[in-house]
Design goal:
Length: 182
């Protein structure tokens, strides 16, 4: 008879956090807001709450399914950190040739005069991400790490250039700090 392989991971739920499970959808509610994540694309995953613990398990697990259980727990940890503290990304505007001007317009960041270009470059910022432009710094804050990090990446990618020697021509906007808001 074949041995049953079982992967299980537990996550202690801190005080002040409310977690609701509906099938494979998880809602995490905390002092800063509420986040929702859908894990329905993961086959054979079972989620349940027991005694202030979230338990994620998979039966008949191979190496990939065992890794997925850890990934689900990591996502929920990030959600808990987001609704209790939040995330902050800092970007630096660097130029030596043409002064770059950056401004926020709704859910977009407009980057003008980048390397002397006439038309502005535009980067998408996801809803729920607060953007502050302070001198040569751009600060993004929010409770969803994926939205904050992707918005920062969009801004960085909007100023990516490939036609110049990067050792001499370093103009652009670069992420220099990722942190949990304390």
């Amino acid at each position: 008879m074949a041995k049953e392989v079982h992967a299980i991971r537990e996550l202690e739920i801190p005080d002040g956090i409310d977690i609701k499970i509906d099938g494979k959808k998880i809602k995490v509610k905390g002092p800063k807001g509420e986040l929702e994540r859908d894990f329905s694309h993961i086959k054979d995953l079972s989620l349940r709450l027991e005694d202030k613990k979230l338990i994620a398990e998979v039966y008949f697990a191979d190496a990939k399914k065992k890794a997925v259980v850890g990934t689900v727990i990591a996502h929920v940890k990030n959600m808990i950190t987001g609704v209790t503290k939040g995330y902050r990304y800092k970007l630096k505007i660097i130029y030596s040739h043409y002064p770059i001007s950056v401004k926020k317009d709704g859910n977009k960041i407009i980057i003008s005069n980048f390397i002397g270009e006439k038309s502005p470059r535009i980067a998408k910022v996801f809803p729920g991400v607060n953007v502050k432009v302070q001198g040569t710094d751009i600060i993004l804050e929010g409770i969803d790490i994926e939205k904050v990090s992707q918005s920062a990446a969009n801004i960085e990618l909007a100023t990516k250039i490939s036609d110049f020697d990067r050792r001499k021509f370093m103009d652009g906007i670069y992420i220099y700090s990722r942190e949990v808001i304390e």
